[in-house]
Amino acid sequence: MKRRRLITGGLAASALIGGGAWLRPAARAEPHDRYFADLQTLMQRDGPGTACLVLDLDRLNHNLIALRENMPAGKHYRLVSKSLPCPDLIEQVLVTMHSNRIMCFHQPFANLLARDFPDSDLLLGKPMPVPAAERFYQRLHPGRFDPQRQLQWLVDTPARLAAYAELARAQNLRMRISIEIDVGLHRGGVDNDSDFVAMLRMLRDNSRHLRLSGFMGYDPHVVKLPAPLGSPDALQQLANARYEHYIRLLRREAPDLLTLQQDLPMVFNGAGSPNFVLHDERAPTNDLAIGSALLKPSDFDLPTLEAFRPALWITTPVLKSSAGPELPGVEWAQWPARLWNPNLTRSHFIYGGNWMADAHSPAGLAPNPLFGRSSNQEMLTSAPAADLAPGDWVFLRPRQSEALMLQFGPLYVVQAGALVDRWPVFVPA
Ligand SMILES: Cc1ncc(COP(=O)(O)O)c(C=O)c1O
User: Fold this and answer.
1) Residue 272 maps to a domain
2) How far apart are CA 332 and CA 324, in angstroms?
3) What is the per-residue pLDDT for 2?
4) Are residues 262 and 399 in the same domain?
């Protein structure tokens, strides 16, 4: 039988020499700068010895100031809990922003938030299937949180609203309903007048059980579309116009729904980190949901968020560092590979890996496309100057915070060069 080769032909050769570049790449490697060298010292002294997340409290505070300075006037701040899924972090942000408003995307976390933040105002950020909504009530912790007043379910279609009405009748519930409107993203929400008006009628017909609480129209596409499709400001005005259209329709078709609960003003939610700064006085929103900007993972390196700084790092120890890369089956190839691409001179195996993140410090580390990714012990290659050894720590910058923040244990909270706390993250019930 022929021995299987791990790599073959031209594809392998081009990958070895660095993604098919024909020119010899320059060596890229720099040791940790002062900031990361200090974090490494902290980890070596007080770290868990395994991959973990570091939250830089000084940078978080910087970002909170940036948020306060950039928050458009007259809008309420709502914290996006999926992007900051850690009760201590949520507490810190809500206190600084003088807000009790939270957006939530996952039923078990809605229950945790209702228990741990009994004075919060919770708005669902996605429509919960009816069994999940039912489960929320079954699991509701007895306490101050009153879902009748403090929870807004998000509903996107007449069919889902009918199912919610049935649930509310069967369980004798009063549910506040926020209508999701499609203002251009097309991820979900009502996108035509007849469905919208049908939902208003249903709300009126079921007023013993369902109350309109407002709208949610998410619109981050305005900063993400290619320039020929319009400037962010022009695209924001289009999204605003769609939002206003539904507010006008509500006033015309069902003004009574607007006045039913005067003690609970209508919530017109919109935006996200990428475009909240564009929700100025021209936007009909009064409530802006923002989470990720406060930690600024790399997906949020956007012109609208220039004032914010990365505040969250993955850090992990190096387990083995050697001249390499030694690829199984083609060990001979390391010499030509190194000669061609000096960034393949050393290989470092780290504790864990394959996260939604990019190697950040020391500069010049990269996964090896031929060796492949590993969630257990990932190989990172580098130029000779990245002189790492077992016991050294590397830092990776997350691309996003949601989901990723639940993959590690508690956050290691650092401030002024010291490890000051460990903050547990959400654990679903
Ligand atoms: C409905 C909704 N609002 C707001 C946000 C903004 O969250 P972030 O600020 O973390 O991007 C999101 C993110 O997915 C969302 O789905």
Assistant:
1) yes
2) 10
3) 38
4) no
Distance CA 310, CA 293 (A): 9
Give the tens place of pLDDT for each residue, 187-233: 999 999 999 999 999 999 999 999 999 999 999 999 999 888 899 99
Residue 338: give the domain boundaries: 26-53+309-423
Give the count of domains, the chain: 2
Tell me if 290 CB under 6 Å of ligand 1.
yes
* CATH code of the domain containing 37: 2.40.37.20
Of all residues in the chain, the percent with pLDDT exceeding 70 is 93
Mutate to test the pocket of ligand 1, among 101, 218, 277, 296 (most ligand atoms within 8 A of CB): 218
CA 273 to centroid of ligand 1, rounded, Å: 7
Whether 177 is in a domain gets the answer yes
182 and 328 inside one domain? no
63 in contact with ligand 1, CB cutoff 6 A: no
- Beta carbon of 18 within 6 Å of any ligand 1 atom: no
Q: What is the pLDDT of residues 235-266, one digit of tens each?
A: 999 999 999 999 999 999 999 998 766 678 99
Pocket test for ligand 1, best of 67, 78, 80 (most atoms within 8 A of CB): 80
Residue whose pair of structure tokens reads 């060796």 in the numeric block: 371
Q: What's the confidence (pLDDT) of residue 194?
A: 98
Q: Are residues 144 and 272 in the same domain?
A: yes
335: confidence class by pLDDT, cuts 50, 70, 90: confident
Q: Decide: 353 in ligand 1 pocket, CB within 6 A.
A: no
Cis peptide bond upstream of 362, omega within 30 = yes
Judgement on whether residues 156 and 126 belong to the same structural domain of the protein? yes
Nearest CA to ligand 1 atom 1: 125
Question: pLDDT tens digits for 111-128?
Answer: 999 999 999 999 999 999
Helix/strand/coil (H/E/C) assignment for every residue in 346-373: EEEEECECCCCEEEEECECCEECCCCCC
Quick check: bond before 325 cis, omega within 30? yes
Minimum CA distance residue for ligand 1 atom 12: 272
Determine the atom of ligand 1 nearest the C-alpha atom of 276. 9
Residue 22 neighbours by CB under 8 Å, 6+ apart: none
Residues 244 and 117 in one domain: yes
Point out the domain boundary residue: 230, 250, 285.
285
Residues 316 and 356 in one domain: yes
The reply to whether the predicted model has a pTM over 0.85 is: yes
Answer whether residue 353 shows pLDDT above 70.
yes
Which atom of ligand 1 is nearest to 269's Cα? 3
Q: 3-class DSSP state for residue 56?
A: strand
